[in-house]
Amino acid sequence: MSLKHQRVVVERGPRSGLPIIVAVHSTALGTAIGGCRIATYPDWRDGLDDVLRLSSAMTQKAALAGLPHGGGKTVVALPAGAVLDRRAVLHDVGDVIENLGGIYATGPDVGTGPDDMMTIGERTGYVLCRTGDSSPGTAAGVVASMRAVVADRFGSPELSGRSFAVLGAGRVGSHVVRLLRSAGATVLTADVDPSRRTAMESVGATWTDPRSCLTAAVDVLVPAALGGVLTAGTVPTLRCAAVAGPANNQLATDDIADLLHERDILWAPDVVVSAGGIVHAIATELHHETPAQVTTRIEAIGDTLSGILSAARETSSTPAAAASRLADFLVGTPPTPLPATV
Ligand SMILES: NC(=O)c1ccc[n+]([C@@H]2O[C@H](COP(=O)([O-])OP(=O)(O)OC[C@H]3O[C@@H](n4cnc5c(N)ncnc54)[C@H](O)[C@@H]3O)[C@@H](O)[C@H]2O)c1
């Protein structure tokens, strides 16, 4: 396999002794952006695989969100049972990013949050989201996407009277549930953490168990927990008309997009749907836009998704393939040919 990334740095952190891996996939549209993931891997090379995949997805995400940025990612690959000296590892991360000289800026991801960005910020200025929570922006982008999805599927963007099953009532999922309820939708929700139940029922959502939520007969299933939820095993059990949610990497493998298409379940690519938080952070922190300008950008996620869903229909391809082709076009990558049929 040829290397498609602009730059990949692997360093053993001098303070932490841990593998710090930063991949800059592309700066064709501007500074690469993408979060810092601290996670356990069987081997650091699995972390390398992850960072290569995630940074390439960030290039697509930034381009599809209309941001003048490329994609990158940081992974700190923890061995099983590692005891973390958090400050040491975050300073190691900060130094690696600083040494890249500004071609990449990081932010929170799995295993890191705004406080960690403050600590990384003690070593480098190339860091986002030091304050605040990205989940309200992400949720707003999800709801803008919902309007595009129901318009495509049912002929009207109206959310009132539509039914949704939100799997995962965490930071983003709980905001989505509230926004959908305020718009007059019927909402079923579930989380492995039962402490979320009271808050969700107080806004009028119906609580259920995760399995029933996944397979509920609803208009739209909203994956808002972990990635990999759509598999060859789960897709045949779905009873929804569409799937659209913030969870990253929902498809266990790329061919699951075809399986959903064959079942006539509309899948909205998560790389588009989940962009609201990063759009908010970039527009506010790097481009100093006004709240009204930021809202307009987040609402535009729905327009982008509408265009992708129309293009998919017109070319008889999956929305995943249509999104990928649009991202390649925006970044200037030579497009891959369309398959004859899907
Ligand atoms: N926070 C953001 O701004 C943002 C931005 C883009 C994408 N995402 C993605 O959206 C998803 C949710 O992010 P978040 O910030 O809300 O995370 P979170 O950790 O706050 O919420 C996730 C929730 O899912 C629940 N959960 C875990 N496994 C589950 C299961 N099997 N069934 C049901 N519930 C389960 C957890 O208990 C938790 O409440 C993640 O995939 C994340 O990568 C988040």
Automatic annotation (TrEMBL):
SUPFAM superfamilies: Aminoacid dehydrogenase-like, N-terminal domain, NAD(P)-binding Rossmann-fold domains
Cross-referenced PANTHER family: LEUCINE DEHYDROGENASE, VALINE DEHYDROGENASE
Family annotation (SMART domains): ELFV_dehydrog (SM00839)
Occurrences of domain Glutamate/phenylalanine/leucine/valine/L-tryptophan dehydrogenase C-terminal (ranges): 132-332
Binding locations of NAD(+): G168, A169, G170, R171, V172, G173
Molecular functions (GO terms): nucleotide binding; oxidoreductase activity, acting on the CH-NH2 group of donors, NAD or NADP as acceptor
Family: Belongs to the Glu/Leu/Phe/Val dehydrogenases family.
Organism lineage string: Bacteria, Bacillati, Actinomycetota, Actinomycetes, Micromonosporales
UniProt source species: Actinoplanes derwentensis
Residues at the active site: K73 (proton donor/acceptor)
Protein name: Leucine dehydrogenase
One Pfam family matching this protein: ELFV_dehydrog_N
One of the GO biological process terms: amino acid metabolic process
Assigned keywords, A-Z: NAD, Nucleotide-binding, Oxidoreductase
